[in-house]
Design a protein that fits this description.
about 375 residues, four-stranded antiparallel beta sheet, two-stranded parallel sheet, 6 strands, about 5% strand, elongated, disordered N terminus
């Protein structure tokens, strides 16, 4: 019998663990179902296909002519750029693929932050709803007691009305907290593609991101701008290679029918005589590289400044959370228990009693907000680090 009970309890615990979704699971589900990640993946795939067409040889020309007016001759003509051009085009295509992959990482990093923050908001809303349920239960009991005491002539109409009014207000707050929690769960479900979320982890401080400040070079947005600069650098080399001659090779009999095979071939060289237009292309590509490098530097500076700001938020919120856990929350529970005991003993009126309860529950709300602020700041630090 004892073994049966143990197995039943173990099964229930295992079921609760399986049914519980973690932030990491929510992130993975969003990666698999969100349209933005699909679009980013398809963008990378498109660039990989584009690499195969980077050489981009022009189609050969097949023609039929009668050069002498006596017979028709079949000819073929193939034009091509200087070989360096095709090498540089391939390099540009690979750099654009790398840029697309960097953009994919930016998309995933932004989505990861969005899921984590939404999960955190849902956790905080669930915590506040549970506190609202406890508070509503207590206030309803207080209102019922006040009504009985008024009927017995133990308190006046003002205290009875005040207790009932506070109970009604707290009940509405509980309903609002329920709506808020449900709405956030629905948003999280839509973002992750998980129809049945199950239980969320309880709200608690997450110190995962409490490590040295992330280096700006690790930020996906900075890496994206650096990849854009690499594309611009490849574009400069490609623009320079277009200054080189291009060629054409062909076959066509332009003489008599019995003309020797050796004299039926043709070749031509395209001379880049109008150098000005090619130089303008090189200068434009050079300026584009300078723009990309400046944007990468600006993004890196922005990440460094944002990191300093968020670290300040982290330490402020962490100090508040530690204070609440060490002092404020125990004091809040003590205030509630003492106030209830004194009210039942008739040692305090309803005005002071309800004011004390309001202050005690305000501490619990403040704790939830501080934990939410701490975790949100830590998630933003992880976002800056691309993790």
């Amino acid at each position: 019998m004892k073994m049966l009970i143990i197995l039943s309890i173990t099964g229930l615990l295992a079921h609760s663990i399986v049914a519980q979704i973690t932030p990491d699971n929510a992130v993975l589900a969003a990666f698999q179902s969100h349209p933005a990640t699909r679009a980013a993946s398809l963008g990378v795939l498109a660039r990989q296909y584009a690499e195969k067409s980077a050489r981009n040889l022009p189609n050969p020309e097949l023609n039929v002519e009668s050069p002498t007016g006596e017979f028709y001759a079949v000819g073929v003509l193939q034009s091509f750029e200087f070989p360096t051009v095709y090498t540089r085009q391939k390099q540009v295509a690979k750099a654009e693929t790398a840029l697309s992959q960097a953009g994919q990482r930016v998309t995933e990093n932004d989505l990861r932050l969005a899921v984590r923050l939404l999960y955190l908001n849902a956790q905080a809303a669930a915590y506040l709803y549970q506190r609202a349920v406890e508070r509503d239960s207590l206030y309803q009991a207080v209102a019922a007691t006040a009504a009985r005491q008024f009927s017995a002539g133990e308190i006046d109409f003002l205290q009875k009305t005040l207790a009932e009014n506070e109970a009604g207000k707290i009940h509405q707050e509980k309903l609002a907290a329920d709506y808020q929690s449900t709405a956030l769960r629905r948003q999280l479900s839509a973002l992750t593609g998980i129809a049945d979320l199950g239980a969320l982890l309880p709200l608690a401080p997450d110190t995962t991101g409490l490590n040295p400040a992330p280096a700006p070079e690790a930020n996906p947005a900075v890496l994206y701008e650096q990849s854009a600069a690499q594309v611009a650098a490849r574009q400069i080399k490609l623009a320079k290679s277009r200054v080189l001659p291009h060629f054409s090779l062909g076959y066509l009999n332009q003489g008599a029918r019995r003309t020797s095979i050796d004299y039926r071939f043709r070749a031509s060289v395209g001379i880049p005589l109008w150098a000005g237009q090619y130089q303008a292309g090189v200068k434009a590509a050079t300026v584009e590289e300078q723009v990309a490098l400046a944007q990468a530097e600006a993004q890196s500076q922005s990440v460094a400044i944002e990191s300093i700001r968020i670290q300040s938020e982290v330490f402020t919120a962490l100090s508040q959370v530690r204070y609440h856990e060490a002092e404020a929350l125990p004091r809040s529970r003590s205030l509630i228990a003492t106030a209830v005991r004194m009210r039942e003993a008739g040692q305090v009126d309803y005005i002071s009693f309800l004011r004390t309860l309001d202050e005690a529950y305000a501490i619990q709300r403040d704790y939830a907000w501080q934990v939410q602020a701490l975790n949100a700041a830590l998630y933003r630090l992880l976002h800056l680090a691309g993790r």
